[in-house]
Every structure is written in C-alpha cells, then in structure tokens.
Design goal:
By secondary structure, the chain is α/β, with parallel strands linked by helices. It has 10 helices and 11 strands.
Length: about 260
C-alpha cells in the first residue's frame, strides 16, 4: 500500500477519533531529515504537513510547537563561549523560520488556514502569542503554529509544548521523534534496547529517560496531560495516535 493510500484509509470520514484538541511537538532536527543534519528538507516538510492537514480535515483542533535545532541550538553557541541567553534567543528565531516554512506548505500545498504565533513579537510576519486568540483560532478550524519557544532563554521547546498544551487545554501532547518511542537504554548505542510501551510521569523522571526535559514532564504531570512519543518517519503515525491506536510510548499518570 502506498503512503497516500495508507493516509486515505486512516483519515476516512467514518473513523472515530479519540482526541479533538492536540499539541504536536516537532523537533527541528526531524525537519532536516538526516541525523545531525542542518537545514530544511522540503520532502519531509511536505509529508508532515500532509498528515497535519489530514487531521485538520477530520475536525481535530491542531496546535504545533516546532523546534529550531536544524538551524541553531543554544547549546551550540554556549559550547563556543557565547552567552547562554544570547544563544537561546538565536535558537528561538530559528524556530520562527521553521514555523514559516510549515505555514507556507500547509497553506500553498494543502490549503489549510494557518496562523503562526510567536512568543517574541515580530508583527510583520506573525501574530504575538495570545492564549485566548490561539484558542479562538482552533475553534474556527485554523491550525496554529507556536514559535519562538516561551520567549525566555533557558527553556526548551519541549517545555514550550507542555506549557502551550496546558494553556490551550489540549487533551494530549504528541512528541514526534526519529525513534519508535522511549527505550530503556539508547537504541543507537544498544541494539538490545527495549521499547517501553507505557510509563508514568514519575518513572520518566526517576529513571532520567532522556525523552524530554524534566520541566516539560513535570508540567504535563501537574496538568494531567498525557504524552505520546512516536516515530515521525512512519506514514500515518500522527493520525493513528489521534485515533487512539497503540503507537510509540504513552506517558501518563498511571499504567
């Protein structure tokens, strides 16, 4: 079955969806395509936008938080002796570039009404982040992309995703990665690493599983927002997750 046929089957009108308002966290690295790659891969962006547009067509209220690691990471500058706050602000600007790339493909290729909201004001190209306006956009069927992180240095885009999920009262947060989910050890270093299908927030924190930073996990735990970590490279993965299929790793309050 082709990728297009698979998406059509998943996104059939009669399909029952488990979640109606979601936050999807996309890493910047995922948009680059290759491990440690830089820049934006047009093919990957189009495929991701295709799945996001399919969600929107099914009536799911979709908010996206995008990272900027394919262009710049704050830790890169810090390693070279740069002031950490300055390096982080550069990383926030990188997320805006990715957000605009996603918006252009969503609107030009898939005709999805999209709004980019930034935590750092840049009104010439995007709206400033306003919680009530973001919720209103979602209610009107617009896909919202949150960029520029939290607007503050020292916070990751994972934390941004958890914060925005809590603010807009999302039912779940999806973290799209290049792995099938969370493993007990690093699968890139240990071929015998075991995929963990379900974890509690406390298990992720206590075992220091490096799926996302502790602040993001704690925010989700405090606000009872489940997290699904899944492989972005699998066709239809986002749609399957929204439909409630078992995919990747579920992180929640209890097993």
């Amino acid at each position: 079955m082709t990728e297009g046929a698979a998406l059509s089957e998943i996104a059939s009108p009669g399909r029952v969806l488990r979640y109606r308002r979601v936050v999807v966290k996309l890493s910047g690295e995922a948009l680059a395509g290759t491990e440690g790659g830089m820049g934006i891969d047009p093919g990957i962006v189009e495929r991701v936008c295709g799945e996001l547009s399919a969600l929107a067509a099914l009536g799911v209220e979709v908010a996206v938080v995008v990272g900027g690691g394919n262009i710049w990471r704050g830790t890169m500058g810090q390693a070279r002796g740069m002031d950490r706050a300055t390096a982080d602000y550069m990383g926030m600007l990188a997320t805006v570039i990715n957000a605009l790339a996603l918006q252009d493909v969503l609107e030009q290729r898939f005709h999805v009404d999209t709004r980019v909201q930034t935590a750092i004001e840049m009104r010439a190209i995007a709206e400033p982040y306003i919680r009530r306006r973001a919720i209103r956009h979602l209610e009107k069927g617009r896909l919202v992309i949150f960029a520029a992180g939290t607007g503050n240095p020292f916070f990751s885009t994972d934390t941004t995703a958890a914060l925005r999920a809590a603010e807009i009262e999302a039912q779940i947060m999806f973290k799209a990665t290049k792995e099938d989910g969370i493993y007990d050890t690093d699968p890139r270093k240990n071929p015998d690493a075991k995929l963990l299908e379900h974890l509690t927030y406390l298990e992720v924190l206590q075992r220091r599983l490096e799926v996302m930073d502790a602040t993001a996990v704690s925010l989700c735990m405090e606000n009872r927002i489940p997290i699904i970590v899944f492989n972005l490279t699998i066709a239809g993965a986002i749609l399957r997750a929204v439909a409630g299929e078992a995919i990747g790793t579920m992180v929640s309050g209890q097993r």
